[in-house]
Structures are given as structure tokens and as C-alpha cells.
Amino acid sequence: MESASIDLARRAFFGEGTLPVADVRRPVLQSWIRCVDLGLAERTLPRVAPLSEGDLHVLHQRHDALRRLCRPELETLAGEARETGSVVILADGEGMILDTLGDTGFASRAAQVALKPGVSWKEASTGTNAIGTAIAERRPIAVHGSEHFFAGHGVLSCAATPIMDPRGAIIGALDISGASTVGHSHALGMIRMAVDQIEHRLFRQRFEDCRILRFHDDAAMIGSSREGILVFREERLVAGNRRGLALVGRHWDALDESVAEELLEERAWHGADVLLRLNTGATAVGRWDDDAIGWPMLDIRPGRPSTARGGSELADREAELIDSALASAKGNISKAARRLGIHRSTLHRHLSRRQPRA
User: Fold this and answer.
1) Cα→Cα distances 74→77, 86, 163, 187, 200, Å
2) Hey, what's the torsion of the CAs at 87, 93, 97, 100, to 10 degrees?
3) What is the per-residue pLDDT across 181-217, written as a single tens digit (0 to 9) for each?
4) Tens of pLDDT, residues 231-261
5) 0.90 cut: is pTM over it?
6) What are phi and psi of 244, to 5 degrees?
7) Three-state DSSP class for 57?
8) N or C: which end of the chain has fewer CB within 10 A?
9) Closest CA relative to residue 214, chosen from 249, 172, 243
């Protein structure tokens, strides 16, 4: 977006209280509105303090599985970042920065606006920014210069994509950030490709008692990060990747609700390949994985530090988390289950225990 246009949009929104729908992209404007509702003021700098060295070490331990999962892409993107004077950033699902790699000169300048490990970049803390807004919007986004909510962040140009687990829960975000004076036109594309690779590796894990369908309209793409993936348990859709859901015209809310016969039809077999007729009318080639194939379940949710607490206290804490997720989802069990990264049956059992006995 041109600088003059975004400057006009900022004056209209922050100075006159009007909505500059023609001058600013919709997700950016929606983020500005959320930030104002949170009580943030664009002319101040956010009051954020990095974690202590000890707390950062604990944070890294909690997210060790996520950091290892994303390391190949971080290292690859770091090489690109060094050439463009930028940094690649891994954040957790709450927007807390875990790692930054890339150009050390820009990393030092970025640290002056708290773009460094141990600092939260969720919208509630640091306003409109690629990491926080990608998490809030659940989609890839670039935020350039003055599109950032805080005026002091106008020196940055950032692009980020949320990392989704097979149940649609956000487990992290990958970002490239650089100076707004330098063009970063390909940053969002690179980030999206990297996240595709990361999310694809999550499907190497074993899904007990499930069938995994890998499909694409081009058989050569099966096995690559561009394939669609759907996971079925007893014919019910329980997991998938973004591409697989898009190919059958569904979103994450279809998990636990849709069944295989609603989504696709097997038309003919050719060796290990099956010709599929999708519910959208399109055709595709698919291959079913045996449910015994794969590594043991990889738990990429934040690890819990060891404690001396008893089972009863841990159960109480689990109940609190479930109740909080249900409240945030306004009682929608499927949405709460995806947010927690657990199956709906766990929530049903929790609710049944809470019901008074006759």
C-alpha cells in the first residue's frame, strides 16, 4: 500500500474517528479496531518487557518440540533473511517470540522496538503486526510500515503465517521482518511455503484407528507439501490440512461434523491410487495410508514443567482450561476442542461429570 494512502487512512481513523475502508486493507482495519477496543493508543509505545533469561529458558523448554519441528525452515529462511537485511522469527501460538535468526545488524535494530525472543507480539500487547494479526485472523498476512497500529513500529515490514496442527489449533507463527524502507515483496510467499512444509511433517505422526487420505488433482503432487490431507476415524473427519479442507469446500469447523461420504466418492482404483469424485464436482487422485504407518503421536502443544502437584490439582487445572475454552467458544464444543487440541469426546465427558446426579 502506498505511503500517502496509508497516512490518509491513519488520519481518518485515529484523528477523525472514521473508517477508511477504501484506503486500508480490511484485515489491517479490523486489527486497528480490535486494538482500539483493547484500549491501546497509537502514539505511545507498547509497554512490553522481555522475559528474564531464566524464564526464556523455561519458555524454550516448553516449546522444544515446536522449535525442533520448525528448525529446518528457520535455518533455510535465515539465509534468505541475511541477504535482504531482515530476520526470520518463530513465535508460539500466543505470539510470544521464541527465536530470531538472520541479519544481526537488523536484529539489533529490531530489538530496540522489542522484536526479540521473550517478548509477546500478540495484538493485545503490541497492536497490529504480522505475528499477532496472523494469529488473530487465522491466516497469512503482511503488515508494512504505517499499517502497524503503533506509530513507532512504522519502521518495520513484516509477513507472517500461523502454523496449524492437524486439528486446526494454532501452535505457532512464522514471520519475516525487515526495514520498511526495503522491499520484501516475496516474504509472504516464502513464509507460506515454509509453513506448508512444517504442517505437512505433522502428518508423519501416527493417528491411531484412523485412515489418512492424501490427494491432489495431479498425482505427481501426492507426497509433497502441496497435497491435500484428510484424516478419518470410523468415516468421520477428525483432522486435515488447509489444502485438503479447501479441496472439499470445508473449513476447520467441519472436523468431527462431516463424514467421508459427504465429501468424496471413490470411483475407480488403479493400483494404490484411487480416482475420487469430490463433493465440489472436481476429480482428484488419492492414496490411503495404513493407520499403522507413521511415527508415534508428536505432541507439539507446550510442555508442562514438572511439578510436585497431586493428580487432583492437575485435574482441577485441566477442568479450568476446558471451562475457559468453552466460555471463549460460547459453548461450541467443536470450536473449544480445536482450540485445546483435544477430541470432542473429552469435552463431552467433562460436561457429563459436571451435570448434577439425580
Assistant:
1) 5, 13, 13, 13, 15
2) -30
3) 887 678 999 999 999 999 999 998 878 889 999 999 9
4) 999 899 999 999 999 999 999 999 999 999 9
5) no
6) -65, -45
7) helix
8) C
9) 243
